[in-house]
Design a protein that fits this description.
With 553 residues, this protein is of the alpha/beta class. It is 33% helix and 25% strand. The protein has 2 domains: 4-429, Rossmann fold (3-Layer(aba) Sandwich); 447-549, ANL, C-terminal domain (GMP Synthetase, Chain A, domain 3, 2-Layer Sandwich), CATH 3.30.300. The structure holds 5'-O-[(R)-(benzoyloxy)(hydroxy)phosphoryl]adenosine. Residues 38-408 form the AMP-dependent synthetase/ligase domain.
């Protein structure tokens, strides 16, 4: 039998020993694991509420209950042959079971692969195949979509996928998650728990390539990002974190997010919908103290807040990140919501920057913060990797105690995305202020940041090229007053192809089975693409053209 953990580990680049030693000696890596962290919090305060899931009849799980559930689910999964190092694709909406599943997998040493609820057949099949997943965990349905049908298709196509587990409704041909938990043997679990330096999970990259890349994170490094964030965001055991964004995304998971809140012994409240009519009553009822939003939602909230009948006075901190928050919008946060804005500029690969709660208001509204750790190394370089003087705009490279040294199972890509000495090329174009704060000025990666949702141009272009009438395609960003950016696809049709309308191209992409946010917002037919001096296609010129012709939405 293959050692699943050895396999997973062998594909995960890691920190050279001298760096690992340094991070341990500095106290960043504390030698904790997720399983141990939950067990300790449950022992310290078993009756304190850990997770509130207001959906349906509403559930309130204490730390003791979450810990017991994780243990019993781990035992049940182990009895079904899920072992340390197995990859398990988890695609759940904001429901309490998300934490039961994830902590059970952590306890087993199996590796969650965090899919988003928006992902569809193409993405899920890829995650299952590429990771060699043993299991896939879904909600029966959510947002009008039946995940059991998706699972049935994927299971037929990926023979290695042994289990599909379903929560929140009839499991259909699969097993209900609720039937899995079992009592662990009286003499303790039949497996060895993971160690702090072990891999904990695979997170998804926003990506700029044809397929999303996977990000291997360890217990040590991720837990540092949790407590480091907690210190900067004022999270302690009295905090109440409202999880508005999809729970599996790195921002609501760890900045400081649900896992940060659980690390602190605080309370997590799950928000089933991000709209003010759902979120505001929850803030009042649960006395929410902090939450995290992407800029488009922050705009909606600041517009809705002045007229709301709900009491939002418990809210101390609003984190906004995932995409650039305009200065103008940032200035509206304090007067409308009555709380401190904290800008977050982070990435699933690691580095997270926060404005500090005691930064001057000007810094809070005009910068994207500074790194969590004194050991986060920041370089701002020109196109040839030469360091630029402070204040000049260039490419952001970073290395540090919670930034990965390479993507999972992607050696060729790693050679491009990381420098020889281990700095990650973020693809972001930034400027450093004299106070060490970063200002995001743009992006060099071929990606569209659609209100925080990342769209890899190449991925969409590949789907467009699969259309029989399409000769060539280029996808670029165009401005959108609400999302910040939206996607515009420039398409050259084949000579002699039957006439086709833009809307048909969009429909075609939709039928390719991918997340709806990747469908181009606009399709423009052209005869040729603009070229650079050396004859390459100029995405810069296409972006300018899209910007000139974009209609306000
Ligand atoms: C977060 O993570 P990802 O992995 O979905 O996306 C990372 C990218 C960054 O490289 C940058 O291009 C963009 O998203 N980004 C921002 C930003 N925050 C993220 N661009 C401008 N301003 C910001 N404040 O998006 C993420 C992960 C953890 C915390 C927060 C966000």
């Amino acid at each position: 039998m293959t050692d699943q953990y050895a396999y997973a580990r062998s594909h995960a680049p890691t920190w050279p020993e001298e760096f690992a030693e340094r991070y341990r000696a500095a106290g960043w890596w504390r030698g904790e694991t997720f399983s141990g962290m939950l067990r300790e919090r449950a022992a310290a305060h078993p009756d304190r509420i850990a997770v509130v899931d207001p959906a349906g009849e509403g559930r309130r799980w204490t730390y003791g209950e979450l810990d017991r559930r994780a243990t019993r689910l781990a035992a049940g999964l182990h009895a079904r042959g899920i072992v340390r190092g197995d990859r398990v694709v988890v695609q759940l909406p904001n429901v309490a079971e998300f934490f039961e599943v994830v902590f059970a997998l952590f306890r087993l040493g199996a590796l969650p692969v965090f899919a988003l609820p928006a992902h569809r057949e193409t993405e899920i099949r890829y995650f299952c195949e590429f990771t060699g997943a043993a299991a896939y965990v879904i909600a029966a349905e959510h947002g009008g979509f039946d995940y059991r049908e998706l699972a049935a298709t994927v299971r037929d196509q990926v023979p290695g996928l042994r289990h599909v587990l379903v929560t929140g409704g009839d499991a259909g041909p699969f097993e209900a998650l609720a039937d899995v938990p079992a009592d662990p043997p009286a003499d303790g679990p039949a497996w060895a728990e993971p160690a702090p330096h072990d891999l904990a999970f695979l997170q998804l990259s926003g990506g700029s390539t044809g397929v999303p890349k996977l990000i291997p994170r360890t217990h040590d490094d991720y837990i540092y990002s949790l407590w480091g964030s907690n210190e900067l965001c004022g999270v302690d055991e009295n905090s109440v974190y409202l999880c508005v964004l999809p729970a599996a995304h790195n921002f609501p998971l760890s900045s400081p997010g649900t896992l940060g809140a659980l690390y602190a012994g605080a309370r997590v409240v799950l928000c089933p919908q991000p709209t003010p009519d759902v979120a505001f009553p929850l803030i009042e009822r649960e006395r929410v103290t902090l939450t995290g939003l992407v800029p488009p939602l922050a705009l909606v909230w600041t517009e809705a807040a002045p007229g709301t009948p709900y009491d939002l006075s418990s809210l101390d901190v609003l984190l906004v990140g995932g995409a650039k928050f305009s200065e103008e919008a940032a200035r509206r946060v304090r007067p409308t919501l009555g709380c401190t804005l904290q800008q977050v500029f982070g990435m699933a690969e690691g580095l997270v920057n926060y404005t500090r709660l005691d930064d001057p208001e000007e810094t809070i509204v005009t910068t994207q913060g500074r790194p969590i750790s004194p050991d986060d190394e920041i370089r701002v370089v020109d196109d040839e990797d030469n360091d630029l003087p402070v204040g000049e705009t260039g490419h952001l490279l970073t290395r540090g105690p919670y930034t990965i040294r390479g993507y999972w199972k992607a050696p060729e890509h790693n050679a491009r995305s990381f420098t020889a000495d281990g700095f990650y090329r973020t693809g972001d174009v930034v400027r450093l202020t004299p106070t060490g704060h970063l200002v995001v000025e743009g992006r060099a990666k071929d990606q569209i940041n659609r209100g925080g949702e990342k769209v890899a141009a190449e991925e969409v272009e590949n789907h467009l090229l699969a259309h029989p009438a399409v000769h060539d395609a280029n996808v670029v960003a165009e401005p959108d007053p609400y999302l910040g950016e939206r996607t515009c696809a420039y398409v050259i049709l084949r000579d002699g192809a039957a006439p086709v309308k833009p809307v048909e191209i969009k429909k075609f992409v939709r039928t390719r089975g991918l997340a709806a946010y990747k469908v181009p917002d606009r399709v423009v037919f052209v005869d040729a693409f603009p070229q650079t001096g050396v004859g390459k296609i100029s995405k810069k010129d296409l972006r300018s053209a899209a910007t000139r012709t974009a209609e306000p939405s």
